[in-house]
Amino acid sequence: MCSIIYFIVGFVGKFKNFLLFILVGILQALIGMMVGIFLGAVSPDVQAATEIAPMIFIPFMLFCGFLVNVKNIIAPFKVFEFISPLRYTFEFFIRNEFEYATDLGDVNPLKTLNFYFDKNLLIFILLMMLGFYVIVTGISIKFTTNQIMN
After folding, report:
1. Would you state the pLDDT for residue 90?
2. Contact 36/56 with Cβ under 8 angstroms?
3. What is the pLDDT of residues 48-104, one digit of tens each?
4. Average model confidence (pLDDT) across the chain
5. Contact 64/94 with Cβ under 8 angstroms?
6. Terminal-to-terminal C-alpha distance of the chain
7. Angle, CA 49 vertex, CA 45 and CA 54 arms, to 5°
8. Which residues lie closer than 8 Å to 46 by C-beta, 6 or more apart?
9. CB count, 10 Å around CB of 115?
10. Which terminus of the chain has fewer Cβ atoms in its 10 Å neighbourhood, N or C?
11. DSSP H or E stretch at residue 13
12. What's the predicted TM-score (pTM) here?
């Protein structure tokens, strides 16, 4: 899907940018799957998982910087900005597209959206989030299967 979108939208034509876009898209998909598996593992049944999932994903979407500028997020909700994998993916995609653009004039999305992380740091953060969710999901599956078997 990412490879089709990249060329249809007409993003920067550099091959390195394309590969990084694909990499971050895959990382985001893996993180999303791990969060879903985690919610399924800790939920007592399918209906509970279905009811809990929006309570997790909606704050992630609201505070990732796409709907609300990260500068305008008030202190009690800042935690959602930093634990949201969508925030780092969105910043990476914006940075990947506009980091070296010279014809933007006064409208630079990186400054307008108040993004400040480096692309390498964003990839590292996403990898660490993926590792965290894999570990937490594995532990939760281990404990829930032990409870079911006993």
Report:
1. 92
2. no
3. 989 999 998 898 888 888 888 888 888 888 888 889 999 999 999 989 988 877 777
4. 87
5. no
6. 43
7. 165
8. 40
9. 20
10. C
11. none
12. 0.86
